[in-house]
Amino acid sequence: MRRAFTLIELLVVIAIIAILAAILFPVFAQAKAAAKKTACLSNQRQLGIALAQYISENDDRLFFFAHAVDVSRTQPTVPFGATRENRWWNQIQPYVKSLSILQSPSDSGQRPHALEDGVGGRPLVKRSYVANRAAEGLGYSQVERPADIVVITVKNGGYDDSWYEPPKNLYPKSPGQPPVLALDLQTGGVNMTFFDGHAKWQSKGKTLSDPCGEPFSGVELMRLYPIPPTPGRPDRTPWHPSCPN
Questions:
Q1: What's the structural domain count of the chain?
Q2: 33: domain range?
């Protein structure tokens, strides 16, 4: 006589497989997310090393903010203008092995800047990180707590912003839209690179425990070393009602 599975036995096996899948799939997903977070942290550590080298060889000063409309501490009277060369990641490019470190595996968007979007003969440089405008153009010696001030972190993948402005960009960019910063992208937090060059993961709750994001956001630096206002454009302000100037 030939033996075969009965219908009950087959259903039992299917049920066992379904239970194992329900148990293991979340574990696999968590492991995959953890691996992406670790790879992102490695990228940010490399950016931190490049940042430290740039500061050391640039008269102890951080990279400058270049914009088509807004001025900066480095050039307070007229905007630098936006070019590929003066994007902050290209300012530190000589100190990195590859611009591929600008891509966080946790970021599904990796939206590039408009000057590097791969369209019309332009190069394609996918990017996940933004720099902190509160720290731009400052000397290392001007920052009392360099281990507390975030300089580079992960942006929301839907935006192509080069910089984030605290405290404004800690909050939704506009009604119904997320903030520029991806503060909870990686299991309730996000990796951050600090002014002294070290990088670590930090929870969203810790970052937003203060309405100004202090001490991590750099709002303290903006009060000590004000960012020059854009001439004739009072609407272009980095401040927010939850953290006024």
A1: 1
A2: 9-224
